[in-house]
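Sample pair:
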Amino acid sequence: MRVTTMNDTNWIVQATDQLRAHATTYQDQAFYLALQDLLIEQTKRLEQAQGELDGRAWG
């Protein structure tokens, strides 16, 4: 299983930045901002879980 890293997530964040910049309604802008927050948080959690798994495997 391949874990998504922050570097992998950067292109998605950039894409949602562009979509948000071109969004015409507040709701669309808020959606893209929330999507970015979700992607970043999920990436952090995946990295933390991978680190925990690695630690348990070596422990």
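The longest helix spans residues 26-58.
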